Each structure stands twice: as structure tokens, then as C-alpha cells.
Amino acid sequence: MLVLSRRVGESVVIGAGTPDAVTVTVLEVRGDVVRVGIDAPRSVAVHRAELLAELADANADAASPSENTVASLSQALRERR
Predict the structure, then answer these.
(1) Bridging pattern class, strands 33-39 and 22-30
(2) 0.70 cut: is pTM over it?
(3) Under DSSP, is residue 40 helix (H, G, I), strand (E, B) or coil?
(4) I need a labelling partner for 71 at 20 to 30 A (CA). Which of 20, 42, 50, 58 fits?
């Protein structure tokens, strides 16, 4: 991990010189909260890490139904025949 110190108004460019370059700019610092602006091409997805973790957990839960759910679905399919 690269650790940098930046002041308000200063930026970091990720992927400089490429078509997918992303610029992260420090907009404001208030106590322990830092507001950043992210300038990225539309082709680059930008997400908050905690939302990605939540989504991964939800997807794992959805992909792994409980045994009761599977048994209930199996029973319903057998009854349809």
C-alpha cells in the first residue's frame, strides 16, 4: 500500500498516462473526516469498499440457501409433477 500525505486541493493520479487514469483530489478535511473527489472515466467503476463488502455478503447468502429452503423447493417441484 502506498501512503501519501496530501493537503486540501492536492491530487493523486492513478494510472497516469493511460486512458483509464483516475484523479483523486482532497476537497475538505473536518476533524477525522476527509472528503475526496474522484475523477474517473465512465468505464471505471468506483464504489465504497463497505458497500462492496455488503454486496459480497448478500450475494454469498443468496447463492447459499439454507437446507430448509432447498428441501421446501424440492418438495414444491415434486408436487408440481
Answers:
(1) antiparallel
(2) no
(3) coil
(4) 58
pLDDT in tens, 31-75: 999 999 999 999 999 999 999 999 888 888 788 778 888 888 888
Q: In one letter, which amino acid is 65?
A: P
Contact call for residues 21 and 13 (beta carbons, < 8 A)? yes
Q: For 31, what's the count of Cα atoms within 13 Å in the CB-facing half-sphere?
A: 0
d(CA 67, CA 74): 10
Cell numbers placing 1: 500500500
C-alpha cell at 76: 414444491
* Cell output for 6: 496530501
